[in-house]
Amino acid sequence: MAAKKTSIAKMSFEDALEELESIVRDLESGSSKLDESIDSYERGAALQKHCEEKLRSAQTRIDKISLGRDGQPVITPADIETS
Predict the structure, then answer these.
(1) Is 2 helix (H, G, I), strand (E, B) or coil?
(2) What's the total number of domains in the chain?
(3) Taking CA 45 as the corner, what is the angle to CA 21 and CA 5, rounded to the nearest 5 degrees?
(4) Residue 83 maps to a domain
(5) Which of 37, 46, 52 is nearest to 19 (CA)?
(6) I want to staple 62 with a disulfide (CB 3.0 to 4.6 A). Which of 20, 52, 66, 78 is the partner?
(7) Which CATH number fits the domain that encloses residue 64?
């Protein structure tokens, strides 16, 4: 798989998610050998972490716009839920 050669750190969210979904499908099919499945699982875990970090980063960039007491727009950082 050519995508495995791609450094996860350089992947976009969309590319990482697409590869993660492909890995999940392959693992669910049960068609891979044990060693291949373990390698895929490890890469999938790294892809999941990368996607979560990308989402967290995007969430911190989102601003919430509301009206202040004077009726003017006020931009404040969005509320961030962490788990």
Answers:
(1) helix
(2) 1
(3) 75
(4) no
(5) 46
(6) 78
(7) 1.10.287
